[in-house]
Design the sequence.
């Protein structure tokens, strides 16, 4: 697909590129930044707050009539257009010096992600997608690599909210079906690696809207079947399954309630 970026996607992409530079500057001096814990294994740093604040300022400048929801500063998701920010997904990885973290921005309309932009700053990769318009990688049209499909690998996300017996059974079922399972401790990375074709998909039974709003559109436009689940508990209690046909055929019997809700 050779369709150029829409104006809206181009602006969102530029915002995230600049936010990624800011995040990377914090990463390179992370021994100096302040860190606090929201709950076990769930951290927030001054870098998270600074990056979200920057993105919010840019969104207000370019899209003043749109709502905004962010992991660190909150917000309300309504029926109208709403930008969803994860300023640094994978903060634990960020703090430990791993390259496996990213900056994510998604646009949700009528409760469906329609634009996604994700930057992996240390890896120097920047992905952008809009529903029906394909995927761009570092500004160029991107096609998912589908070689070596016989090498079966997926990413499995985890959460402090996981029910451990359920998680163990799911993992066992995947391994019994001869799938190799990676865990990156970063939803955004798992989804981008799936969209690239490095792995067959990303599965996460408990996640949040800000973790998936950017990556879900990119996965969909890369050609992966993508199912987003929600609950009455709102945007903090969601799920995502994105994968190739072969992976989804394995997953569905192991995840009986997998369906968009």
Sequence:
């Amino acid at each position: 697909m050779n369709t150029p970026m829409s104006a809206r996607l181009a602006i969102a992409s530029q915002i995230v590129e600049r936010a990624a530079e800011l995040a990377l500057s914090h990463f390179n001096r992370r021994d100096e930044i302040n860190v606090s814990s929201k709950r076990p294994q769930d951290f927030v740093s001054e870098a998270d707050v600074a990056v979200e604040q920057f993105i919010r300022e840019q969104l207000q400048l370019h899209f003043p009539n749109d709502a905004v929801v962010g992991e660190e500063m909150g917000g309300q998701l309504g029926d109208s257009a709403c930008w969803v920010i994860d300023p640094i997904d994978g903060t634990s990885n960020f703090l430990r010096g791993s390259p496996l973290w990213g900056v994510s921005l998604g646009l949700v309309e009528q409760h469906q992600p329609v634009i996604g932009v994700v930057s992996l700053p240390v890896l120097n990769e920047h992905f952008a997608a809009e529903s029906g318009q394909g995927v761009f990688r570092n500004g160029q049209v991107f096609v998912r690599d589908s070689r070596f499909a016989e090498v079966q690998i997926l990413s499995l996300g985890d959460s402090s909210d996981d029910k451990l017996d359920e998680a163990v059974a799911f993992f066992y079922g995947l391994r019994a079906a001869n799938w190799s399972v990676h865990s990156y401790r970063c939803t955004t990375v798992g989804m981008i690696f799936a969209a690239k074709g490095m792995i067959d998909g990303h599965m996460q039974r408990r996640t949040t809207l800000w973790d998936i709003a950017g990556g879900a559109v990119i996965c969909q436009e890369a050609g992966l079947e993508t199912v987003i689940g929600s609950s009455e508990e709102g945007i903090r209690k969601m799920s995502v399954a994105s994968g190739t046909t072969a992976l989804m055929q394995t997953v569905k019997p192991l995840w009986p309630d997998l369906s968009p809700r």
Remarks:
- The longest strand covers residues 112-120.
- The chain has a mean pLDDT of 91.
